[in-house]
Amino acid sequence: MCRRKMRFVALTLALACLAGCAAQVPQEAKLLAEGQEGTPSNVRTDSLTTGTLYKEFSMSAEVAYVRKTVVRLDVDGAQYVETRVSSGQAVQAGDVLAVFRGQGDALRLTEIAQELDRLKTETQDELYDLEKEKERLLEQRGEVEVSPDGYSTYREKVARQVIDMRLERLELQRQQAELRAAERERALRAERSELQRTGTSIEVAAPVDGVVGQVQYLTVGAQYARGQTVVTLYDPDAFLLMVGEGLTGALRMGQRVEVEYGRFNQRARLTGTVVAADLALSARYRTGLSAVQLDEPVNPQQLLNATVYSAQLQLDDVPILPRSAVLYDNGTPYVNLVQEGAVGKRIVLTGPNDGSSVMILAGLDPDEAVAVK
């Protein structure tokens, strides 16, 4: 008996649900009618087609030379004379890039400075010893006794004469020491001046073939330090185009691109390939720069105002609608479906778009018509 009651209740509930569903059908038709924008006779329509989505983007690019040679001065204390090359000039290995004047033999100049110091010290020591000897002789001379009447004995007279002769000899030694020191100092200073005046000519040559890039110009006579840059050379045949600053991930390894370059009224195009991208680096070290290698040889000096073009999106044989056919309601995409004399909403699932067309992933069949603005 209980089982019969339960089956009766279940049957009653099922009938009630069917009745409710049947009651909702007119309500759905009413919602479609509320979205009506006009009668089918005056609404322009379109339907799903199979097409291609293509979206291009562009980025400015600059030439970056792969092989650079920095030519530096390899001597101490040189003075700048002249630079014999200019930026953009092609040079061969051995060509003179710049000329400097050395300050003579650095080792000999150091020896002269040391010898002058030593001469001064030795002369002072010698004069000091002579002065001390003079004081001692004067003290001996004062100790020689003289008789009360002012006359000295023969022995005393001889002793004083000997001391006076020694004092005279000491004075002569002092004068000779000063003359020797002065003459030696004059000779050393003259040698130093001559070395500094004449010096040695230092020619800095190109170590490799290349093109002159950065050039350092200074006032004639300015001091140059060891290791200071003289000229930067680069190999014009080894360069890449660096593109995409701030657009990390825009280009990927192996991606094909087109490069447009030249003056604004004489633009030309070449193809190339992305050969370096920093997506493999952690986010902390990414710069957003990628490198492009051109397929054909070109003078890098001609790559003015270079712009790289590439496909950001290219999908072939996909279902698409005109971009104007897809509308949004609080971010939800929908189309105005034209069906049975009315125009109403149909929610759809969209994919990428290229500005004029949008890909429809779900919600619409190819034979269904939608309103297009």
Any overview of this molecule?
- This protein has 373 residues and is α+β, with helices and mostly antiparallel strands.
- Among the domains are: 58-64 and 236-314, Elongation Factor Tu (Ef-tu), domain 3, CATH 2.40.30; 70-102 and 207-234, OB fold (Dihydrolipoamide Acetyltransferase, E2P), CATH 2.40.50.100; 106-198.
- The chain is 31% helix and 36% strand.
- The chain has a six-stranded antiparallel β-barrel. Strands 1, 16, 17, 18 and 21 form a five-stranded antiparallel sheet that branches.
- It is rod-shaped, with a radius of gyration of 51 Å.
How does the SSE layout of this entry go?
Blueprint: H1 2-34, E1 45-47, E2 49-65, E3 68-72, E4 78-83, E5 90-91, E6 96-102, H2 106-143, H3 154-198, E7 200-205, E8 210-215, E9 223-224, E10 229-234, E11 239-243, E12 256-261, E13 268-277, E14 290-294, E15 307-322, E16 327-329, E17 332-339, E18 342-347, E19 349-353, E20 357-362, E21 369-371
Antiparallel strand pairs: 1-21, 2-11, 2-15, 3-10, 4-6, 4-9, 5-8, 6-7, 8-10, 11-14, 12-13, 12-15, 13-14, 15-20, 16-17, 17-18, 17-21, 19-20
Helix pairs in contact: 2-3
